[in-house]
Design a protein that fits this description.
This protein is α/β, with parallel strands linked by helices. The protein folds into two domains: about 120 residues, ornithine cyclodeaminase, domain 1 (2-Layer Sandwich), CATH 3.30.1780.10; about 180 residues, 3-Layer(aba) Sandwich (Rossmann fold). It contains eleven helices and 14 strands. The strands form two sheets. Strands 9-8-7-10-11-14-12-13 form an eight-stranded parallel beta sheet, sandwiched between helices. Strands 1-6-5-4-3-2 form a six-stranded mixed beta sheet. Helix 2 crosses helix 3.
Length: about 300
């Protein structure tokens, strides 16, 4: 019988670093991948949440991720996201690997943000002050990717959350945590270099007027047109970068709502492929906003990089 590798979270973490995952995203775009041609993600409502199906294909492989999103799980002490990723040979469609889908998402999502914001980090020649909205796996993962991936030097990190005690318990005693309603949050934003939003919010998390013109803002949490973490004024004054323009206009609530408010137009939105390939320039005197909703090609690019390690 042919053996098919089954990779769990520890396996994935040992096979690929945050930098290597970001490079896999970057290399796919430099190699000519067109995100606009990716297969469409399906979001199905089920009794306890959602089922997401994310298929994609490349010259070397076909893959599909099936993940569940259960909003009530954290209150029960369970992860919000579960799932599996299946990899198939591009020619024979034989299955070649199975991966923990949540673990793949956990490394893919910060990889996309780091790749998408990579050119903007050139504006800093010192350790950056990072403010993270959220203290879950993605909030922690993005800080870890930034700190270990060589994208920039990380100075101090502050997590802004609704339940500080719970966050301190998860992050450890050395973590700096602010409650979302604390007036100190506004003061922190005024000196922040990088702001990372990893929540399921439907209204803006902060008043963007507090942010300096050099800030980089990663808007990661929302994957639906009704979800929003950043106000329209932030988009109006910033360089706005997305994975794919058409996908953002359909799925990115931050983008959709900012456009409905007259704060953003479609021609103001830059595809990350153009930024990474250098066909558009980055104005380091303006805030840089990267909005991600997660696309299927990204999972496949990282999964292929992992499978190449498995074969070696």
């Amino acid at each position: 019988m042919r053996s098919i590798p089954i990779l769990y979270d520890d396996d994935i973490a040992s096979l690929i670093s945050h930098r290597e995952a970001a490079d896999a995203i970057r290399d796919a775009l430099l190699g000519g991948l067109d995100p606009a041609r990716d297969h469409v993600r399906s979001v199905l409502d089920v009794r306890s949440g959602q089922l997401l199906l994310m298929p994609s294909e490349s010259p070397g492989a076909v893959g599909i991720k099936a993940v569940t999103v259960a909003p009530a799980n954290p209150a029960c002490g369970l992860p919000r996201v579960h799932g599996a990723y299946l990899v198939f040979d591009a020619d024979t469609l034989e299955m070649t690997g199975i991966m923990d889908g949540a673990a793949l998402s956990a490394i893919r999502t910060p990889a996309v943000a780091m790749a998408g914001c990579g050119p903007a980090f050139a504006r800093f020649d010192r350790p950056v002050r990072v403010t993270v909205f959220g203290a879950g796996p993605q909030g922690v993962g993005h800080v870890e990717a930034l700190a270990t991936g060589g994208f920039g030097q990380v100075g101090d990190v502050v997590h802004v959350v609704r339940q500080p005690e719970r966050a301190r318990s998860a992050l450890g005693p050395d973590a700096t945590v602010l409650e979302a309603s604390d007036p100190a949050v506004a003061a922190r934003l005024r000196v922040s270099d990088v702001v990372i939003c990893t929540t399921t919010a439907t209204t803006p998390l902060f008043d963007s007027a507090a942010l300096p013109d050099t800030a980089i803002v990663m808007v990661i949490g929302g994957h639906m047109a009704t979800m929003r973490e950043v106000d329209g004024a932030m988009f109006a004054r910033s360089t706005v970068v997305v994975e794919d323009r058409a996908t953002a206009l359909a799925e990115a609530g931050d983008v959709v709502i900012a456009m409905s408010e007259g704060m953003l137009t479609a021609d103001m939105i830059l595809p990350m492929a153009d930024v990474i390939r250098g066909t558009v320039s980055v104005d380091h005197g303006r805030p840089y906003v990267f909005k991600s909703v997660g696309m299927s090609w990204e999972d496949l690019a990282v999964a292929q990089a992992i499978m190449r390690r498995v074969k070696r």
